Amino acid sequence: MEFSLRGLLKIFESLKKSENSILGIDIGTSAIKVVQLRKEKERAVLETYGEIATGPYANLKVGQAARLSEESVVMALKDLLKEANVKAKTACVAVPLKSSFVTIINLPFSPEKNLSEIIQLEARRYIPVPISEVILDWWILPRAMEKDVAKEGQRETAQVLLVAIHKDTVNIYKDIIAKVNLKVRAYEVESFSMIRACLSRETSPVAVLDIGASTTKLAIVDFGVMKGSYSINYGSQDLTSALSRSLNIDFSRAEEMKREIGFSDLPENKEVVAVLEPVLEYSFSEANKFIREFQKKNQRTIGKVILTGGGSLLKGLVDFAVKKFSLEVELADPFAKVEHPAFLSKALKEVGVNFSTAIGLTFREL
Ligand SMILES: Nc1ncnc2c1ncn2[C@@H]1O[C@H](COP(=O)(O)OP(=O)(O)OP(=O)(O)O)[C@@H](O)[C@H]1O
Ligand SMILES: [Mg+2]
Q: Any idea which ligand is nearest the CA of 30?
């Protein structure tokens, strides 16, 4: 076999490229999303991205949350990697907030070495399953080290962010990723990735609301640290189901109507809005309760709410959210943090919220 010098250089280039590339994989209940970035000096360059609906792999409709078997996830992910022309060899994978346990605990302050032993012991009191069954991670919160080393009587306390993921969950992901011939660099609870993609350097606490198909996830971030998280068992597919039931139309038609009409203020769309509103009212009031409690407990005022996740694309949702939360509300724009061809900017801004988690995963490695 003969190689020309140019051919060899090309092969070398593509090898070098894929070595510098990292893939973020977000396996959501209604769609799998991937983003591939490359690190070039200090910049993050977008190489490719894509999503695939999971519904059709379980005889369900696009937009419907599906409980896929492991083989079906592998099949869908293979199709997506091919379609998006993914060349990266290494991936970071999101773990659902629902399958993890995240909390902040206060511990007696002691030198870090000691603290890690104390954390291992104390974690047993907070984590609802045997410690041997989870992968445990923790961070000593910087604020606790500096300003907030509170005196509790004679003792000083340190704040520790504790994260546990069930080993069974990780093993399922491990199998899936191995079957699509990728190496896993890290697993991360989806909320942490999402925050990394959606936040800039905000100085007051921010609430990030990720509206997925089956759940709505709230994360409160203060000084860049997730100080609270909450998962609400309602998502955007519940809007579609409500439309389908109330208007007696099939799911696909209801999904279309949801996306086309949303919270329209045109009189002829009153009927649709009347169906959507009570469903959203529920998840937003749950989120609002959590926000108010956080503010009260921590004596901190939330400055704004950032909406993300596919469900946040609902027309008129930002205005609805402003009314509900009485706060500044904005849509996340995670692709803005990534270098990309100018002609893609508009399209990326429009679909960005779908990819927050996948992008945030790649940022972790860049
Ligand atoms: N333009 C749009 N208008 C309204 N809703 C939309 C629009 N585009 C997508 N959606 C909804 O967004 C949802 C999918 O969002 P996303 O991909 O964030 O969910 P997921 O990650 O699969 O779900 P989960 O996080 O709950 O597991 C679907 O319910 C879909 O109907
Ligand atoms: Mg999701």
A: 1
